[in-house]
Specification:
The radius of gyration is 20 Å and the shape is globular. It is of the alpha/beta class. It folds into two domains: 239 residues, Peroxisomal Thiolase, Chain A, domain 1 (3-Layer(aba) Sandwich), CATH 3.40.47.10; 148 residues, 3-Layer(aba) Sandwich (Peroxisomal Thiolase, Chain A, domain 1). The strands form three sheets. The chain has a ten-stranded mixed beta sheet, sandwiched between helices. It has a two-stranded antiparallel sheet with strand order 2-3. A two-stranded antiparallel ribbon has the order 11-12. The protein is 35% helix and 19% strand.
Length: 402
């Protein structure tokens, strides 16, 4: 089996439009959660979101291209371009059939869906835009990336709610490891700051009315975010031959299903996925220094994740540095794992654990070290990034420093 290198990372989210900006804000614990602007806040009970701001797609894409791009595809293309540039592939020839594109998204082109339904039901329009279907497809971002970069290898989308990105990244890593492809562009993208989406999440009663406070006393729920994270994966041999930077090793991937409740998380299910990632990476529990937690800020998720970490790590759980960056960039659903892995890789390279922002104090059900409010210097030998989705679908990535 071949070792898998991460040679490029790109991201765009509420914290910024590139990885350096995102890492700077995450390290500082500066939350980008504020009153929503893309939706009339008067129509919402929970009026806050973590939006991508200061992004003008008209300045990034030609008008003939933009007409085919939902906001989710726009994010994916921007993040992919940054990842390829970091990997030294920005001006490469078409990447061809030896490269795969696997991107996760929970719902696909939700802005396109929302706008089309508004025209039909509110404005009584008799037709919608002819490109509605090509824009809203969950696979549209992956397809757009293949067309932009001449990729003719395997390409598809993965949709597993909030685990979509981690499922995509892990699957891509396995394809590179076993020799199905030599390189993969992978990650996740989501653009769900729309009226229909936000009202639907409100109806579940898991959205906070103020902000996201993972693992904290008085936490009230999650806050919707948006954005994309994209990675270039390739073999160590390929990276060395090209002289590309090896940012980290994508060492392992674990997944499981709870087979229990559609929305209530299971500590046992989460623990199985964590153990699977460690086993796949050849890592022992005590090898892990940092956990980028799923940490949604809901009472049920955070206490369940704490139990799962204790199940897997035993006494070492108390030694782990754990943080949830959803406190600063919100919960980007199908893109969440990609944004969080991007932050994890940046943390490993900086030797700094980003904080869990907005933390007010310990909760009896969450009694581990969540690095509250202030970043911490710490050499990170290996880390895991957790994603646990509605439907009981769990996916965990393990990375090792190089």
């Amino acid at each position: 089996m071949r070792r898998v290198a991460i040679t490029g990372v790109g991201c765009i989210c509420s914290l910024g439009n590139d990885l350096p900006s995102v890492w700077r804000e995450a390290e500082a614990g500066r939350s980008a959660i504020r009153e929503v602007t893309r939706v009339d806040p008067a129509l919402l009970v929970a009026k806050n979101a973590a939006e991508v701001r200061d992004f003008e797609p008209e300045k990034v894409f030609d008008s003939k291209v933009l007409v085919m791009l939902d906001r989710a595809s726009q994010f994916a293309l921007v993040a992919t371009q940054e990842a390829l540039a970091m990997a030294g592939l920005a001006n490469a020839d078409p990447l061809g059939e030896s490269c795969a594109v696997i991107l996760g998204s929970g719902v696909g082109g939700m802005n396109t869906i929302d706008e089309s339904f508004r025209k039909l039901y509110a404005e009584k329009a008799v037709r919608v835009h002819p490109f509605t279907i090509p824009k809203l497809m969950v696979n549209a971002p992956a397809s757009q990336v293949t067309m932009r970069h001449g990729i003719t290898g395997p390409a598809y989308a993965i949709a597993s709610a909030c685990s979509s990105a981690n499922h995509a990244i892990g699957t891509a890593a396995w394809m590179v490891r076993q020799g199905t492809v030599d390189m993969a562009i992978t990650g996740g993208t989501e653009a769900v700051v729309t009226l229909g989406t936000m009202k639907s999440w409100e109806a579940l009663r898991v959205v906070a009315s103020d902000t996201c406070r993972p693992f904290s006393v008085n936490r009230r729920g999650m806050v919707i975010g948006e954005g994309a994270g994209v990675f270039v994966l390739e073999t160590f041999e390929s990276a060395a031959k090209r002289g590309a930077p090896i940012l980290a090793e994508l060492a392992g991937f674990g997944m499981s299903s709870d087979a229990g409740d559609l929305v209530a998380p299971s500590a046992d299910g989460a623990a199985r996925a964590i153990r699977g990632a460690l086993r796949d990476a050849g890592l022992n529990p005590e090898d892990i220094d940092y956990v980028n937690a799923h940490g949604t800020g809901t009472p049920a998720n955070d206490s369940t994740e704490t139990k799962a970490l204790k199940q897997v790590f035993g006494e070492h759980a108390a030694e782990l540095a754990i943080s949830s960056t959803k406190a600063v960039h919100g919960h980007a659903l199908g893109a969440a794992g990609a944004l969080e892995l991007a932050v994890t890789v940046a943390a490993m390279r900086a030797g700094v654990v980003p904080p869990t922002a907005n933390y007010l104090g310990p909760d009896p059900a969450c009694d581990l070290d969540y690095v509250p409010n202030t970043a911490r210097r710490l050499p990170i030998r290996a880390a895991i990034s957790n994603s646990f989705a509605f439907g009981g679908l769990n996916a965990v990535i393990a990375v090792r420093s190089v």
